[in-house]
Amino acid sequence: MIQVKSLHKIGEDARGETHVFDMDRTGQFIVAHRKAGSLSGRHYHKGRSPYKNPETLIIMNGEATINWRNAKGIEQGSVKIYAPSFVYIDAWIWHEVVADTDIVLYELNSLADGNGDTFQLDEL
């Protein structure tokens, strides 16, 4: 449903931490700054776009909670995310991102990838 994976830390010193990650995606990505208390998402994807199956986010800074529900079933839950972390959201999982603090996130797809593959629960 929702999978969270920490970024690999390769170093830490007085300046802070350094993390690395690999990916096979290219093209345009979304960088979003969200204020504490704001909601994002509140939709699901059917997986028509390869970059929405799964949808991949990187929470780069801050803390968030992802509330989710299986659009085809009754399973639901919440996941607390601490930066820096990857978040993988399967197709058919309705999700909302609640910014518990100010956050910065990368969405590893473009706005165009969501065209024709973004739905509300009433569109089942």
Task: Sketch the topology as an H/E string, one letter per element.
Answer: EEEEEEEEEEEH
Unreliable parts: none
Q: Termini separation (Å)? A: 18 Å
The main sheet comes to: 5 strands, antiparallel
- Within the largest sheet, what's the order of strands? 1-9-6-11-4
Mean pLDDT: 95
How many DSSP E strands?
A: 11
**Can you tell me the overall shape?**
globular
Write up what this structure looks like.
3% of the residues lie in helices and 52% in strands. Strands 1-9-6-11-4 form a 5-stranded antiparallel beta sheet, with no helix packed on it. The mean pLDDT is 95. It has a single domain (2-9, 27-123), classed as Sandwich (Jelly Rolls). The longest helix is centred in the C-terminal third of the chain and has 4 residues, at 111-114. The two termini are 18 Å apart. The protein is globular, with a radius of gyration of 15 Å. It has one helix at residues 111-114; strands at residues 2-6, 8-13, 16-20, 30-34, 39-43, 55-61, 63-70, 76-82, 85-89, 93-99, 103-107. The protein is mainly β and 124 residues long.
Topology at a glance:
Blueprint: E1 2-6, E2 8-13, E3 16-20, E4 30-34, E5 39-43, E6 55-61, E7 63-70, E8 76-82, E9 85-89, E10 93-99, E11 103-107, H1 111-114
Antiparallel strand pairs: 1-9, 2-3, 4-11, 5-10, 6-9, 6-11, 7-8, 7-10
Characteristic key phrases:
Jelly Rolls, mainly beta, 52% strand, globular, 1 helix
Can you describe this structure in just a few lines?
The chain has 124 residues and is mainly β.
